Amino acid sequence: AEDSAVARMLARVEVWSQATATGDLAELPGWDERSAATPLFTSTRDNCLGSACPRFRACHVYQARREAMAADVVVINHHLFFADHAIRGTGVAELLPSTRVVVFDEAHQLSDTGVQLLGSQMASSQWLDLARDVLASGLQWARGLADWQGVAAALEHAARDWRMAVGARTPGSRLRWAGEVPDGVDAEGWSRALQDLSAACRQALAALDT
């Protein structure tokens, strides 16, 4: 079912790409940024080839950048504003000219967009993958130098406890996180789970450093 949804999304993107003048995904009908298809037709600062890309001259991002650099007033969406800040942080380039004044519309959406583009995400499944990788690597390359079963088990247990601290959630749903803990999550349980996960990570790092 997911493969069919991805195929339909890619077909829609192909049609849309022939007609769009801006390449702005906000104009793409039915696009969900969480779709499994999104990484298949977008680039990030990690995999963008820049001027080395064979389609560089046709790239909507760089066309918009050239136009913006020559403009006195630039109207953009929140995503592009934060994308520019993310790229500036790398010291490699910038998408937009420097400004003295910025005016935001729909400012109540800034937090969510900023977290999405400037923040980091880590799923419990990634922690579990890390635990399995630590175990496999330890047994293959450093057997007997550490209790790899115990290290991996501690990391896996801490990851599951951290996930349980969040509670049951609908897959793909997001929690608002404006304070020390996400909304609706027990602060004590959350803090304890994070401390345990941090301790398990330090233990794994120490073992890997042997």
UniProtKB/TrEMBL annotation:
Location of the Helicase ATP-binding domain: 1-159
UniProt feature coiled coil, ranges: none
Range of residues in the leader sequence: none
Record's keyword terms, sorted: ATP-binding, Helicase, Hydrolase, Nucleotide-binding
PROSITE patterns, alphabetized: HELICASE_ATP_BIND_2
GO molecular function, one term: ATP binding
UniProt superkingdom: Bacteria
One Pfam family hit: DEAD_2
SUPFAM superfamilies xref list: P-loop containing nucleoside triphosphate hydrolases (SSF52540)
Classification via Gene3D superfamilies: P-loop containing nucleotide triphosphate hydrolases
Name by which UniProt lists this protein: ATP-dependent DNA helicase
Species this protein is from: Myxococcus llanfairpwllgwyngyllgogerychwyrndrobwllllantysiliogogogochensis
